[in-house]
Please model this.
Amino acid sequence: MAIKILGTGSYLPSKVITNDNLASALDTSDEWIFSHTGIHSRHVAEDGETTSTMAAKAAKEAMAASGVQPGEIGLVVVATSTPDFCTFPSTACIVQGMLGCEGAGAFDLQAACAGFVYALDMARGYVATHPGKKALVIGAECLSRILDWTDRACCILFGDGAGAVVVGADGEATPTARVVLGADGRGSHFIERSGGTKDALVLDPKTGIPARPDPRLPVMTLQGHDVFAFAVRVLARTAQELCDMGGEAVADIDRVFAHQANGRIIEAVARRMKLPLEKFFLNLDTTANTSAASIPISLDEAVRKGELRDGMKILMIGFGAGLTYGGVRCDWPTL
Ligand code: UT7
Model:
């Protein structure tokens, strides 16, 4: 039995922050940001918008595109590093309630920017073992809420948004997916978000018992150079491994959906893979890096532009904090 992506959806907030907007507050410029990243602007959630509201909008689109009703969904997975709450209730539970997917299992999956690829593989396993059920896989991020907007080496890179797919079984089709999931925890300090239990507990000096929680907001820190080198190495290696698993040439790949972190990373990966850059889907000039949302947003954009035809050999490859990485090679839309 094969498993298929039955429909896609995405959501980007209407508020846009351009590089020029950032340059009015920071010591940076459109020229520097674009030449170092390929980014011109990013979407940013407004007051009242959260990871769950964006996730639910993307999911509704994916369900409409696939003709699937809320009652048919048996599992909701939200890949995110920016849940509404830190950490419960899960964003997936909130989304499940918003969509009316009564009784569906729901959980968040945290594998940073590689999260969507991880979640897609979890959904594949779920659908294979739960006949008749469908899974909703969402990548959603509200990174603007965890950025230090005075840190010019980091805040310029990211944007908010959500992408979603509905996954279901197709008894007729032959499975096509090959999957790689990996991590290298030795680089866990390269990208960190504060606000977890590693933060020191503040004891009341008089009583010796914990004082109230530290009110500082969590922020992201990034060692860009180290992450850049890791990304190029691991994306090219994962792509090669996925092709080797099926005994196919890299040149036979039709379309690559690489995590949209930095245009220079994607250019370097294309050079290593000896694939023309035109085969790589690119939208980070207007989305920036939306972490776990970047691959499903790209897939949905490609579907809506009519760029994805049945049977196309596609690669989805991602990397992120952890450090994590992963990839899926499939004949669209069959997993
Ligand atoms: O999803 C995973 C998330 N992480 C990533 O994707 C990060 C991957 N890394 C990168 O994308 C790149 O390393 C960056 C875009 C973050 C940085 O680019 P870079 O070419 O590695 O620049 P750099 O860090 O070597 O900095 C070069 C210079 C420095 O000045 P000095 O020390 O040479 O005087 C920085 O202070 O550029 C300066 N700089 C900036 N200048 C203007 C750093 N950020 C900015 C900025 N505007 N926004």
User: Anything to note?
Assistant: The chain has nine helices and 13 strands. The mean pLDDT is 95. Residues 28, 32-33, 36-37, 113, 152-153, 156-157, 191, 222, 224-225, 227-228, 261-262, 289, 320 surround oxa(dethia)-CoA (CB under 6 Å).
